[in-house]
Design goal:
mainly beta, Leucine-rich repeat, LRR (right-handed beta-alpha superhelix), 19-stranded parallel beta sheet, 1 helix, disordered N terminus
């Protein structure tokens, strides 16, 4: 047994892993050995109720891993004397209810993980004394109702994770003093009603995640002061009705997720000022009826997702100014009746998803100008009756999906000019009676689906020329 090993062999021990060791062995072993030189100690998944007193002597300890010690009820006061400790992992210590005030004496601590400590109700004010702390994880501490104002004293803090702290109702105004903070996670803080105006003082903040903050109704105007912000996630903030105009001041913003913001009715015109924005996600914004014309000013935009925006009726003509747009999703925009002719100016567009645009009756002839287009999805556009002859100009098109276009009666002969086309799906096009003979010119076609085309009379003889099929 470990407890019977001669202690002389351990005087120079640096690393000690006792993962899943029984409490009795942990106690006997640690108390019976000279562990003064240990720098890394892992007691992960040990069912200990308290820490062995002999840890007091581990003054060189840099890493202490107590993750998933589910019977651990408290941390002894001597913890504050571990002056060399840099990483402290208490994640999943589900019986831990409080931390001793001595925790603030850990002057070298850089990473502190309390995730999943769901019985932890508060933090001691001494937490603000952790001057070297860079990463602080409190995710899943769903009994935590507030943070001490001293949290703002953590001058070195770069990452703060409060995800799924579902009882957290507010943040202290001192949060704005975290000058080094780069990543701030508040995902699933479902009772958080507002952000303090001091949030705008977080000059180093690069990522702010507020997804699933169901009670959040608005954002403070100071949000526009976050000059370093690159990622902003507001996914499923289902009570958010509007964005402040200052949102356009976020000059570094690259990714903006507003998906499933069900009550969002409009975007401010200032949205066009987001010169660095590469990805804008508006998926399932059910009340969004139109976009501001300023949307065309987003010179860096590569992805725009408007899927399931079922009340969206039209697109502004300025949409054609999005010269860098590569992916455009309009799937499930049931009320969209037409596309502006300017759509043909999207020179960088590679993927265009118009599936389930149930009221779309035709495509503008300018669609043929999309020289970079590789995938065009028109599936379930059940009111689409014809394709423009310009469709044949799409020299880079590799996949054309027309399944369940039940009102489509014919294909233009220009379809045969699609030299790069590899996949053509016409399944369940129940009104389609014949194919143009030019279909045989599709030399790259590898997949051709005609299942459910119940009104087909015959196939053209040129079908035999499809050598790649």
């Amino acid at each position: 047994m470990l407890s019977q090993i001669d202690s002389k062999g351990f005087c120079n021990l640096r690393l000690l892993d006792l993962t899943e060791t029984s409490p009795t062995i942990v106690k006997n072993f640690i108390q019976g050995q000279n562990l003064n030189n240990v720098k890394w100690l892992c007691l992960k998944k040990c069912m200990i109720q308290k820490l062995p007193n002999n840890l007091f002597y581990c003054l060189q300890l840099q890493v202490l891993d107590l993750a998933q010690c589910q019977n651990l009820e408290n941390i002894p006061s001597f913890i504050g004397q571990l002056n060399a400790l840099q990483e402290f992992d208490l994640s999943g210590c589900s019986k831990l209810k409080e931390l001793p005030s001595y925790i603030g004496q850990l002057n070298a601590l850089q990473e502190f993980d309390l995730s999943g400590c769901f019985n932890l109700k508060e933090l001691p004010s001494s937490i603000g004394q952790l001057n070297a702390l860079q990463e602080f994880d409190l995710s899943g501490c769903f009994n935590l109702k507030e943070l001490p104002s001293s949290i703002g004293q953590l001058n070195a803090l770069q990452k703060l994770d409060l995800s799924k702290c579902s009882n957290l109702e507010e943040l202290p105004s001192s949060i704005g003093q975290l000058n080094a903070l780069q990543k701030f996670h508040l995902l699933g803080c479902s009772n958080l009603k507002e952000l303090p105006s001091s949030i705008g003082q977080l000059n180093a903040l690069q990522k702010l995640d507020l997804s699933c903050c169901f009670e959040l109704k608005n954002l403070p105007s100071s949000i526009g002061q976050l000059n370093a912000l690159q990622e902003f996630n507001l996914l499923e903030c289902c009570n958010l009705k509007e964005l402040p105009s200052c949102i356009g001041q976020l000059n570094a913003l690259q990714e903006f997720d507003l998906s499933q913001c069900y009550k969002l009715k409009e975007l401010p015109s200032s949205i066009g000022q987001l010169n660095a924005l590469q990805k804008l996600d508006l998926y399932y914004c059910l009340k969004l009826k139109d976009l501001p014309s300023s949307i065309g000013q987003l010179n860096a935009l590569q992805q725009l997702d408007l899927s399931e925006c079922s009340n969206l009726e039209k697109l502004p003509s300025s949409i054609g100014q999005l010269n860098t747009l590569q992916k455009f999703h309009l799937s499930g925009c049931f009320n969209l009746k037409e596309l502006p002719s300017s759509i043909g100016q999207l020179n960088a567009l590679q993927k265009f998803d118009l599936s389930r645009c149930l009221n779309l009756k035709d495509l503008p002839s300018s669609i043929g100008q999309l020289n970079a287009l590789q995938k065009l999805d028109l599936s379930e556009c059940c009111n689409l009756k014809e394709l423009p002859s310009s469709i044949g100009q799409l020299n880079g098109l590799q996949k054309l999906d027309l399944k369940w276009c039940s009102n489509l009666k014919e294909l233009p002969s220009s379809i045969g000019q699609l030299n790069a086309l590899q996949e053509l799906d016409l399944s369940f096009c129940s009104n389609l009676k014949e194919l143009p003979s030019s279909i045989g010119q599709l030399n790259a076609l590898q997949k051709f689906d005609l299942i459910g085309c119940s009104n087909f009379i015959e196939l053209p003889s040129s079908i035999g020329q499809l050598n790649a099929l």
